[in-house]
Amino acid sequence: MELRPLSLLFVLLALLPFSDAGSIGVNYGRVADNLPSANKVVKLLKSQGIGKIKVYDTDPAVLHALANSGIKVTVAVPDALLFAAARSQSFANSWVQRNVADYHPGTQVEAIAAGNEVFVEANTTTKYLVPAMKNLHTALVKFNLHNQVKVSSPIALSALQNSFPSSAGSFRPEFVEPVFKPMLEFLRQTGSYLMVNIYPFFAYETNADVIPLDYALFRENPGVADSGNGLRYFSLFDAQIDAVFAAMSALKYDDVGVVVTETGWPSKGDQSETGASMENAAAYNGNLVRRVLSGGGTPLRPKADLTVYLFALFNEDKKNGPTSERNFGLFYPNEEKVYDIPFTVEGLKHYHDTHSRSSGGGQRTVTSPVRGGVSKSGAGNTWCVANAGAGKERLQAALDYACGEGGANCQPIQPGDACYSPNTLEAHASYAFNSYYQKKGRAGGSCYFGGASYIVSEQPKYGKCELPTGY
Question: Where does the record place the region Disordered (predicted)?
Answer without folding.
Answer: 353-374
